[in-house]
Amino acid sequence: MSRIKSAWEIALEKTENIEVDRNKLKKDENIKKARSLAGSFLNDDEHMSYAELERQFSAFEDPEAAKEGIKISLLQNLSLNTDEDVTHRYDRLSSLASLISSGNEAVNDLMSQIISFLKQYPEHRKQLLEQLKQHFTPVLEQKAAQLREKYGQDVPVSPENDPEFLKIAQQNLEQLAKQYEDTLKDAKEKLNTLI
Question: Choosing a second label site near 176 at 20 to 30 A (CA), which of 1, 7, 182, 193?
Answer without folding.
Answer: 193
